[in-house]
Amino acid sequence: MNYLIAPNAFKGTIEADEAAAIISETITKRFHDAHTDQCPIADGGDGTCFLLGTELKLPRIDIFTLDPLGRSISGYYFLDKVNETAYLDVSTVSGIKYLKEYEKSPWIASTYGTGELICNAIALGAKHIVLGLGGSATVDLGMGVLNGLGYLFLDENGREIPTFSDMLFRKIRYIQSPLKRPDIRFTCLCDVNNYFLGEEGAIPVFGPQKGLDKNDFEEFGKCCSNVLELLSKKSGKKVLDKSGFGAAGGIAFGLSFFFPVEIQMGAKWFFQQVGIEEKVKRSDVVITGEGRFDSQSSGGKGSYELLQIVKKLNKKIVLITSGTQANEAGFDEVLILPDLDFDRKDFQDLARKNLFDCVRQWKGSI
After folding, report:
1. From the DSSP assignment, how many helices (H) and strands (E) are in the chain?
2. Which of 88, 104, 145, 328 has the most crowded CB, counting CB atoms within 10 A?
3. How much is the pTM?
């Protein structure tokens, strides 16, 4: 029996590659005739480009840069020199995972470190940047990335406003371009289709998750509108808000004023790059999973998109998840994980044990 092991990350507990390893090892021990092929999946969320770079067996470039608050951090990206393409996730150095609750603040948090990674990739020959937008700590409209690429932000007196300053959004009046604009284009991968502006935009929907007080919505919104006007004035280009610009605090929106930017829903793009259909064809059963399958999962999340491919190819698919909303989604079997107490210090160890036990107890009869 051939099993394709293709879980998404179990958010906050187990990364996709570790989950795939746990499931694969347990399956091979449980069923002696089992042959497994591991292909952990992603949908534009945290870690998408890490999995792409790993699956495509690209060389990894490690450099030191800055985290969302300007502290030193080790970052990396994957470089495809033949195709002049670099793969990196915003979350690698600009992720919300690095901030304690009291440190979260869109007024201060910046994607500058991500800009430095991109700048390093350009120096090594990259002309195409594939950017995974999930898991960011920011709502900075990509200003940090632009700053890392040489753009400067000035106050009314023409003085540069320091990066990681809570005055940047309030005091910015001018933008200064680098002497030579980098010759690059972006493909931005996302797992949400929100616009940046509006009632379902980045500020009201994602702002609170990133530390923005509801009482600051109006002021922060006005500051963002001012930034967008300045970006338009400097570039001489009018860019309209669109689906996907709300991801990662508007990074793709800000970059679009100066660079060619293409937005792709992460799951479908990921599957094309790793050749998932061929892997499904070679399998008898596909095993996928995610932390909690809910109403948002059918909007482009990895396990749901994989389900569509598996059904098209008339194969069997099993989902491992928590909650019960997946029972009506069309999976051949749903294995339910117990809920976790995230207040426990050992909740990640317990999550791994729960996954192991869930697969070990599976009868395998579908």
Report:
1. 13, 13
2. 145
3. 0.90
Distance CA 298, CA 284 (A): 24
> Residue 278 is which amino acid?
E
| pLDDT tens readout for residues 287-296 | 999 988 876 6
Record the tokens describing residue 94, joined without a space: 């600009």
Q: Are 91 and 132 in contact (CB under 8 A)?
A: yes
Q: Which amino acid is at 244?
A: G
Q: For 15-60, what is each residue's pLDDT tens digit?
A: 999 999 999 999 999 898 899 999 999 988 888 999 999 999 999 9
Task: Please state the rounded mean pLDDT for residues 262-266.
Answer: 92
Q: How many Å apart are CA 131 and CA 139, to the nearest integer?
A: 16
CATH number for domain 48-267, candidates 3.40.50.1860, 1.10.645.10, 3.40.190.10, 3.90.1510.10: 3.90.1510.10
80 token code pair = 């495809």
Strand-pair category, 60-66 with 72-80 = antiparallel
For the chain, the domains span 2-41+275-360, 48-267
Least Cα distance to 289 among 2, 13, 71, 1 occurs for 13
The angle, 0 to 180 degrees and rounded to 10, between the axes of the packed helices 266-274 and 302-312 is 50
Quick one: pLDDT at residue 296? Answer: 66
Residues with Cβ within 8 Å of residue 203, at least 6 apart in sequence: 139, 212, 217, 220, 221, 224
Could you give the C-alpha distances from 179 to 159, 256, 366, in angstroms and in order?
Answer: 18, 19, 62
H or E element at residue 146 = helix 143-148
DSSP string spanning 17-69?
HHHHHHHHHHHHHH-TT-EEEE----SSSTTHHHHHHHHTTPPEEEEEEE-TT
Classify domain 2-41+275-360 by CATH number.
3.40.50.10350
